[in-house]
Amino acid sequence: MAASETPWWRSGVVYQIYPRSFADSNGDGVGDLAGVTARLDHLVDLGVDAVWLSPFYRSPMADFGYDVSDHTDVDPTFGTLADADALVEGAHRRGLRAIFDWVPNHTSDRHAWFLASRSTRDDPKRSWYVWRDPRPGGRPPNNWISAFSLDGERPSWTLDERTGQFYLHSFLPEQPDLNWDDPAVPEAMHDVLRFWLDRGVDGFRIDVAHAIGKDPALGDNEPGRRHDQDWPSVHPRLQAIRHVLEEYEGDRMAVGEVYLLDQAELAPYARATDELHLVHNFVFLNLPWSAPRFRATVDEFEELAGPGAWPAWCLGNHDHPRIASRYGRGPARVAAMMLLTLRGTPFVFQGDELGLTDVEVPPERIVDVDGRDPVRSPIPWEPPSSAGPGAGFSTGEPWLPMTPEAERLAASAQVGDCESMLSLYRALLALRRATPALREGSYKSLEAGEDVYAFERGGDLAVALNFAPEPRRVGATGRGSLLLSTRPSAPRGTEVDLATLTLEPDEGVIVAFA
Ligand code: GLC
Fold it and tell me: Are strands 278-279 and 50-53 parallel, antiparallel or unpaired?
């Protein structure tokens, strides 16, 4: 890359693939890597620049792959190492970058490291995980609570009878936490990065990145101060990870899942120029559908993170209800425009470009420990009337129910329809690609009318989004011509005055200043 060129992870758009639910090539009802490779052209036609794949490594699947039992092999459910290589190669051939998920905070309890660690107190790998004696009365070592607590709060400690000590697991008991305070752990986990970097991977999404720094004294969590994550030691650890990426040519990138619901706590991660390249912002993702709330949040983040930081925006992933279910179908179109026009790198979750909603999962088919099945329903590629009930996702019985709307929302059914969500995403992505101000321009929010969130990009254009299900006046200053509306029938090129322009219910527009 020439020094003046913007790196791909700043100018591009990333698309998240949840491999189990994307495309199944062998008819077993579960998506796989060969399925992904066969569908890469969908992403090229959509107009994204990179794919991030959720984990496909060897795993007992207690948390569907976020419990890794071998970091350097592919689970047979998803294929083989050769399939992973073919995927990266297929992506690169099409000009797409490929980023993989890396889960540094914990492993599976079946990982060879943990099996050794739990075997005896004096095993050399004992200190690779966090072991502590019970407190008096057999109580867990401290008050830390594990993340999946659907059926009530549970300690993040499990007693291992064999050696009489508790081990730490911030998530399921099947996901013991690695002990990053033992230097052997970062060393081994860096080698995992190198294994995939050597194979050509363009970067990583780092699972719960803020959790690899914890209070080594294991102090109790207190109101306003957690000791089980976001400890100062996390920052040098992220720096060291960045250094591993920098051993390689070609702009390798790390985006962190930093799940902190306070932008002031998130900002240090975003501001640091020698740690993560990008951080996901879950304050933004969790907002209610409100123009003033989105404006205030984006403005606050821009302010806290500073001009050197580059935001990463996402409104969905495999852990959260879908946009069209949270906000509604009309707002989902406006949300797409917002996501793809803010200053920063947008992340699109698979199926949001089709306007999918969460799919009801009957009790007997629930498989996730944390209620996330509805968002993980498989992608409908073709209408069931032509492709059968698997809708082109699978010739077998999909592992989770297919959306009952597959006939209408299938990708192939949306392609020729200029009113479809897919057509809107394609138009937005094409415009973004063709418009430097949208990719790299500065951001400034504008004073606007009630329920309208409006902002300027690079001084060249404005975006105005109506969050109300009723017409609303934009009421901002500026004139120009309409580049794109979320309303397919709105004539492009029309001259508009933002002061008097009235947006239709759930309409967003992009206006190029005259
Ligand atoms: C992250 C992942 C989630 C997983 C958890 C534990 O939050 O996104 O799916 O369950 O980490 O690895």
Answer: unpaired
- Domain 112-168 belongs to what architecture? Alpha-Beta Complex (3.90)
183: CA distance to ligand 1 center in Å?
Answer: 24
pLDDT in tens, 362-402: 999 999 999 999 999 999 999 999 999 999 999 999 999 99
Q: How many residues does the chain have?
A: 514
Q: Checking DSSP bridges between strand 50-53 and strand 97-102, what pairing results, if any?
A: parallel
Average of pLDDT values for 77-101?
98
For the whole prediction, is pTM greater than 0.90? yes
Delimit the CATH 3.90.400.10 region(s) of the chain: 112-168
274 is catalytic: no
Q: Catalytic annotation on 230?
A: no
- Atom 9 of ligand 1: nearest residue by CA position: 319
Decide if 260 contacts 226 (C-beta within 8 A): no
Q: Decide which of 2.60.40.1180, 2.40.50.140, 3.30.230.10, 2.20.25.10 is the CATH code for 441-513.
A: 2.60.40.1180
395 in Cβ contact with 381 (< 8 Å):
no
Instruction: Report how far Cα 254 is from the mean position of its chain's Cα atoms.
Output: 12
Q: Has domain 8-105+183-428 been given CATH number 3.20.20.80?
A: yes
Closest by Cα among 356, 395, 354 to 376 = 356
CA distance 475 to 450: 9
